[in-house]
Every structure is written in structure tokens, then in C-alpha cells.
TrEMBL record:
Pfam families: MreD. The keyword ATP-binding does not apply. The gene is mreD. Belongs to the MreD family. This is Rod shape-determining protein MreD. The chain crosses the membrane at residues 20-39, 51-74, 80-100, 107-126, 141-162.
């Protein structure tokens, strides 16, 4: 019992502020407004989906399915897609992230890359399937593989960017 009472507040992780989470997701949407063309469109990772996975895994109480749906609608508007395609894929992604969250957290960061890759591939596949059913042309293999692969390869570096965020002060330690 002494080991539990001697646990200091500095060893506990302080969650980032909701403002920082919203700012990071907003910046990922601004990333979509950059003038991508040619191969840039094929190699641009889905930063919004990657952040949705990250915050869904490490801060599940802040994000919700409604937030994922709203991010999808905003992403559709930013990319001039059919309204609702990204909303469907991001909502599905969020549900899968919550389902696989304990499993993802049981692995080291580098081992989590495979789980993130599968989630991003599924998201890409679902988006392509919906676009195909709506009558749009099927993208080539690079769209199906390169974007999720680059997003998954960025997973180990994401904490380096996001965990430097301003955090609220830790509650005072009781004697």
C-alpha cells in the first residue's frame, strides 16, 4: 500500500487541454486547403484521420462520434467531396478506434504502426468504395496504398509534436 501512496503527481500524465486538441484538428483541416495537385494529392496523408486515431486512443473522453462526424463534414467541404463521405468514414474510424483502443495501447509505439495502418487502409477503402458506388472513377493503386502507408509511418512521430502542447496545471499534491 505504501507504493500506491508514494506515487507522486509528476508520474501521472496530465491530459492536454481541449483547446489544444481542437487546434490540432483545425490545423489538420487547414492542411487540406493547401494547393495540392498532381502527385501531391496521392502522397498527402490523411492528417485528420491520423489525429482522430491519436486523440481517440489517448484522449477518448474528449472526442466522440459526433466530433468525428463533424470533422468529416468539414473535411468534405474542404476537399469539395460529396457531402457525407468523410463523415461516414471518420465516424466508422472512430468506432473502430474505440473498439481496438485497449489492443492498440497494449503495444509499444512502433508496434502500433501496424494497427494504425490497418485502420487507415480501412478508412481509405471505405471512402473509395462509397465514391465508386456513387459513380466516380476508381483511383489507381497509389491512392489505395501510399496515403495510408505514409500516415502510418508518421504515427511514431506524432507524439513528438502533440505531447509538447500546453497542458493545464496539475492538481496540487495532498500531503
Amino acid at each position: 500500500m505504501d507504493s500506491i501512496t508514494s506515487l507522486s503527481a509528476t508520474t501521472l500524465r496530465v491530459s492536454p487541454s481541449r483547446g489544444w486538441i481542437r487546434t490540432s484538428l483545425g490545423l489538420s483541416l487547414i492542411f487540406l486547403f493547401l494547393p495540392w495537385e498532381g502527385w501531391g494529392l496521392w502522397i498527402r496523408p490523411d492528417a485528420t484521420a491520423l489525429l482522430l486515431i491519436y486523440w481517440g486512443v489517448f484522449e477518448p473522453t474528449v472526442m466522440g462520434a459526433g466530433s468525428a462526424f463533424l470533422l468529416g463534414i468539414l473535411s468534405d467541404v474542404a476537399q469539395s467531396h460529396v457531402l457525407g463521405v468523410h463523415a461516414l468514414t471518420y465516424s466508422t474510424l472512430y468506432v473502430l478506434v474505440q473498439y481496438y483502443r485497449p489492443r492498440i495501447l497494449s503495444f509499444y509505439r512502433l508496434n502500433q504502426v501496424l494497427h494504425v495502418l490497418m485502420l487507415l487502409l480501412l478508412t481509405q477503402w471505405l471512402e473509395g468504395l462509397v465514391n465508386g458506388l456513387l459513380g466516380y472513377s476508381w483511383p489507381n493503386w497509389a491512392w489505395w496504398v501510399i496515403q495510408p502507408l505514409l500516415g502510418a509511418l508518421g504515427w511514431p512521430f506524432l507524439p513528438l509534436l502533440l505531447e509538447r502542447a500546453p497542458r493545464p496545471a496539475a492538481p496540487p499534491q495532498s500531503p
